[in-house]
Amino acid sequence: IDSQQFREFGKAAIDILADYYEYIRERNVLPSVEPGQLIRQMSEDAPEQPGDWKDVLKDFNELILPGITHWQSPQFHAYYPTGVSYASIIGNLLSDGIGIVGFTWIASPACTELEVVTMNWLGKLLGLPEEFLNCSAGPGGGIIQGSASEATLVGLLAAKDRMIRKLTEVDPNLDPDDVHNKLIAYTSDQCNSSVEKAGVLGSIKMRLLKSDAFGKLRGETLKKAFDEDKANGLIPCYVVANLGTTGTCAFDPLYELGPICNEHNVWLHVDAAYAGSAFICPEYRGFMRGVEYADSFDTNAHKWLLVNFDCSTMWVKNGYDLINAFDVQRIYLDDVKTRLKIPDYRHWQMPLGRRFRSLKLWTVFKTYGAEGIRSHIRNQISLAQYFAKLVQSDDRFLIEPEPALGLVCFRLKNGDNLTKKLLENLTAKKEVFMVAASYRGRYIIRWVICSRLTTKEDIDFSWKKIKEETDLICLEKVH
Ligand code: PLP
To answer: What are the protein's UniProt keywords (predicted)?
Structure first.
């Protein structure tokens, strides 16, 4: 493909995407494909001969799009959102277009520096304490990781390293391996699977402590666990607090957990993968009261800030904790000796290579402005409240727990089996997509406002479908 064909290929691809969004309401949110369908449709071997780009787009339309679950459909209400905006797509395109890898400053100075700039912008907009920001006097700073899972693991590995370093400094006779074997980490039983997995990947026992009746991990529970484990010779090392759990969007009280962690020199990481984006609106910052006690904080800009996957924004109070843990030198990576203020981001993450992810954050900031992003969040939350009102207006349903941000959980009063059947039937019809969770032992359906395209009329459509299916199920029950 030469540059002229690239122009045509690129413009045609943009046209396909623009049409995709314009006509997205004509598609069911869930695809009608059988398992193995695409595998059967594709040739067994890679093409031997070069092909025409027009055939690539034809196959994309005819073979690939039919097998897509439409996350940007206005009827997609499952999981949590994944962000998309035209500005962000262009940011990604520009990043791919220049084809760089930015592991050191010299590998692409603008890649490092735009990340510093945009992470300062976003950190300030979220109202994070100054110590987390690269522009503060201290050793804090932000980095874009690929996912919240990576951020949790990076925090865990750095926490282990910091604890072993501290204890062996105080008592040089200690064997670092012995210390390592005694380390233990904590989170709540409501944590995302990725938090538990970080324990597996990081070779440390991760205790899932019992949350209270509202799904929050309380200070007294954490303190009791520390005391028990210390009495048994273990060393508490890492705590992951959840701001906006995946199941029900519960918020752990950082103001209770933080002082306990600080007292025991335990690293506190805040997983605010979904809910953190809402802190761009000052009225939601109450949920992060106590964040000043944390060592690291992560939110997925790629969930709710109109930025495409992947862009997980993580801040740490002390960049040296990461550098101490992950700095491995090679002569070919020797850089102008970079300082903390212009970080060698390769020491702040797991891989060596890194994408120019800050470009899409920057294109979104530049085109929406902070006000545009705030009004997106506010509009989405008001749409969730609109849906909650519809559910409340039908006395066959119960909303439980209280809606939080863009999440509304509900169930049929008539029991778990009927609620489960309602979700199964709706999923089978492919017009509305939601997933389940459990709350206080009951089966609930999670409805999340996800697509930036969703309007009140779209919600009326989803609600109509939910009511119609409920009518059918209730009728079946009577007969
Ligand atoms: N933490 C929470 C609370 C989440 O809701 C999710 C995903 O939805 C994750 C972590 C994992 O995020 P990622 O896929 O970016 O690793």
So the answer is: Lyase, Pyridoxal phosphate
Cα 147 to ligand 1 centre (Å): 7
- CA dist 27 and 69 (Å) reads 10
Per-residue pLDDT tens digits for 30-70: 999 999 999 999 999 999 999 999 999 999 999 999 999 99
Average pLDDT over residues 145-169: 97
- With cut-offs at 50, 70 and 90, classify the pLDDT of residue 340: confident
CATH dotted code for 365-478: 3.90.1150.10
Provide the edge-to-edge strand list for the sheet that holds 267-271: 141-145, 312-316, 296-300, 267-271, 235-242, 183-188, 205-209
Over residues 212-224, the pLDDT tens digits come to: 999 999 999 999 9
Q: Is 188 in the pocket of ligand 1 (CB under 6 A)?
A: no
What SS3 class is residue 474?
helix
Cβ of 312 below 6 Å from ligand 1: yes
Where do the structural domains in the chain lie, given as residue ranges? Answer: 3-68, 100-355, 365-478
Kindly report the protein residue whose alpha carbon is nearest to atom 14 of ligand 1.
147
Q: Which atom of ligand 1 is nearest to the CA of 310?
A: 15
Architecture per CATH, domain 100-355, reads as: 3-Layer(aba) Sandwich (3.40)
| C-alpha to C-alpha distance for 158 and 153, rounded to whole angstroms | 8
One-letter amino acid at 248 equals T
The domain defined by 3-68 folds into dopa decarboxylase, N-terminal domain (1.20.1340)
Q: What's the complex ipTM?
A: 0.98
Burial of 405 (0-12, 13-18, 19+ CB in 10 A): buried
